[in-house]
Every structure is written in C-alpha cells, then in structure tokens.
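Deliverable D4.2, example record:
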Amino acid sequence: MSRLKLGVLGSGAGSNMQSIVDAIDRGELDAEIRIVLADVPDAKILERAKRHGIPCAYLDCAPFRTKLEGPAEDRCIELLKGAGVDTVVLAGFMRIVKPKLLAAFPDRVVNIHPALLPAFPGVHSWTQALDYGCKVAGVTVHFVDAGTDSGPIIVQKCVPVEENDTPESLHARIQVQEHLAYPEALRIIAKGDFRIEGRRVRIG
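Output generated by the structure prediction step:
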C-alpha cells in the first residue's frame, strides 16, 4: 500500500474532486492531491482547489475544442510530472485524452462516467438512460484507454430510475453515488490489491 499522489483534471464545478478531498480528510483514503488542472479559466474546480490550498492552474487547450492534444498535452504532462503525480483523476474533464498522456501514466489514468458502462457512453448519459426506458441507471469508475468511456471497470454503483424522474432528478441521484464510487475506486488503487487482466479489473 502506498499513498496516492493525485493529479486532478476537470472542467466544471469539481464536486467529484470535493468528494475525494473529503474522503482524504476523514482518513478514508490514503492520498494527497498534488495539483488540479482545468481547461476552463473560471472553472469552479479551481476555486475549490484554492480553498483547500491545492496548487492549481488553467490549461489552455486551444485550438482543440474536444481533446487534449499538442502543446497542451505536453504542458499537462509536464505539470503533472513536476508535481510528483502518480495517478491522474479525470473529474468532469470534458476532453478526450490522447495516447501520450496515457503512456506517461500507464494504467494510472482514471475516469468516472454517470452510466453503467458499456451502456450510454458520451455526454448526457442520464438523459440517454431515461429516454431508453431503463429501470436502472448508475455510475462507473474505470481506467482510461484509447477509446471513449471504454477502459477496464473498477467500480460500478446502481441507481433506480423512478417513474416520475426527470433528467435533473436522475442526475442528482447519480451524483450522490458518484461521490461514493470515486473514493472507493481510489482506495482499491491505493491498496494495490488489484490486477488488470484484459477487460477485467480483478480485486483481491
């Protein structure tokens, strides 16, 4: 077991990062967040980082709109390595990460997705689940590979879909489970009590 040295990439409010900070503060996760990077200059995740005294920076990803590539990817790797990061956490990071970042942190880039993958990859997955008529939705924490929301699964949690759900109400219940699932997955990684075999993450 070793303390995780986390680098967090985000684009929005940072509620999943907050759940990780809270788990660390409660002594439930042996980790420290070394740096937070955001591709949106006024993202609230940067405000959260500053409140907790965590080093943070804006990562200008122009001219690309949906991916982390080119000079921005190089800068991202430089900042993460410079901060001593060993595990990269994607917390609402709305960009596709590319092979260079994955190669810099092999099997140590983790993402959370608000669906029970492989169902409903991509954006607004809770709305996709509702429109499809699903009885169960959920959340997945997975290692990142070269695909989109396709890497080996570490943790999944289910959320029932209620008859009167709206996209907003379902998303809110999914987020509650997200904030439990991410620290749980990172605890598994911190303990080192897992192995990746093809698509399977075998725990214990």
